[in-house]
UniProtKB/TrEMBL annotation:
Organism encoding this protein: Aliarcobacter butzleri L352
Entry similarity comment: Belongs to the ketopantoate reductase family.
Protein name: 2-dehydropantoate 2-reductase
Lineage per the UniProt record: Bacteria, Pseudomonadati, Campylobacterota, Epsilonproteobacteria, Campylobacterales
Gene3D superfamilies linked: N-(1-d-carboxylethyl)-l-norvaline Dehydrogenase, domain 2 (1.10.1040.10), NAD(P)-binding Rossmann-like Domain (3.40.50.720)
Keywords: NADP, Oxidoreductase, Pantothenate biosynthesis
Enzyme class: oxidoreductase
């Protein structure tokens, strides 16, 4: 298959390398210094089960749209959620009125990326995706370090016979690797289940500068985390997803057993990058407000984090 990965950060590089090792033709879309580096140098990925240090083609999004979309089978979107709208606008004209277009698969944080993508592409070619039990971060330019056993959940936003056959074939390819892949008939539910974890841990870890295991196993802080997770379940009702208390308990228990990691928001804070506060915490607050409810745990943690981080950045 011909595969394009937009976003050559931790998750993007991990999945790009997986398919490259399987023998597929992979191209990374990057920008700035990362693009300059990847055009001239090898990409390095280290994981406990494998490693790679090879040259893989990299291009800009402007170079991507010079290609014929019918020659590409899959485009993985592995960027920060705040870039989804802008990227989709750029690629909309590229695929418009084309008989053959690639499948667009989001591997991002948040629950609204796929809905945005459906506004810009043929919705039958939009696939929701999420990763679990993986930590993958850029150490230096061109070098990504990853840990975890890695689970991938994929599902079509609007299932058809064609996209189900595509997903079955994609799963067969991923099953050749040391990762586990599940196909979901209700990907929106899976995305909200992941948001329970992200809203529960991302912002509070960034605020306190601690790894997930340290906080979720702390007697007092764990109660705040459970509150954050419960507010996410309330917010999901606006999206037509009914997440029960049992779902919340299951996600909370899962994280107490998961390897302690630095979540993406803490990594972004340490590297002075923009935080995905709106896409993780903001959607919870917004959806609770639509029901006439507040989300006090989420509002307090995200507001304090945003204020302190902006103050810190102004000093630099």
């Amino acid at each position: 298959m011909n595969i394009v990965v937009i976003g050559a950060g931790g998750v993007g590089v991990f999945y790009g390398v997986l398919f490259h090792k399987l023998g597929h033709n992979v191209k990374f879309v990057a920008r700035g210094k990362n693009l300059e580096y990847l055009k001239e140098n090898k990409i390095k990925l280290t994981h406990s089960t494998f490693s790679l240090n090879e040259k893989i083609e990299a291009l800009s999004i402007e170079e991507l749209v010079q290609l014929n979309p019918k020659d590409i089978d899959i485009i993985f979107l592995a960027t920060k959620s705040m870039s989804t709208e802008n990227i989709s606008l750029k690629l909309e004209e590229w695929t418009k009125n084309k008989k053959e277009i690639p499948y667009f698969i989001s591997l991002q944080n948040g629950v609204e990326n796929e809905d945005i993508m459906c506004e810009h592409y043929n919705k039958e070619f939009v696939i929701g995706g999420l990763t679990r039990l993986i930590a993958a971060h850029t150490i230096t330019l061109g070098h990504v370090e990853s840990t975890g056993e890695v689970q991938t959940i994929l599902g079509a936003m609007y299932p058809t016979k064609q996209n189900q056959e595509f997903l079955e074939n994609l799963k067969k390819e991923l099953d050749k690797t040391n990762t586990t892949t599940f196909l979901s008939p209700n990907i929106k539910l899976e995305l909200w289940n992941k948001l329970i974890i992200n809203n529960g841990l991302n912002a509070i870890c960034a605020l306190l500068g601690e790894k997930t295991g340290t906080l979720i196993n702390d007697k007092k802080i764990s109660k705040l985390i459970y509150g954050l997770m419960s507010e996410t379940a309330l917010a999901s009702k606006v999206a037509g997803v009914d997440i029960t208390k049992e779902n919340v308990d299951k996600m909370f228990e899962l994280m107490t057993k998961f390897e302690s990691i630095k979540p993406s928001m803490l990594i972004d804070l340490e590297k002075n990058r923009d935080l995905e506060l709106e896409d993780i915490c903001g959607v919870v607050i917004k959806n609770c407000e639509k029901q006439g409810l507040d989300a006090p745990y989420t509002r307090a943690i995200s507001t304090i984090l945003e204020f302190s981080y902006n103050k810190q950045r102004k000093k630099q």
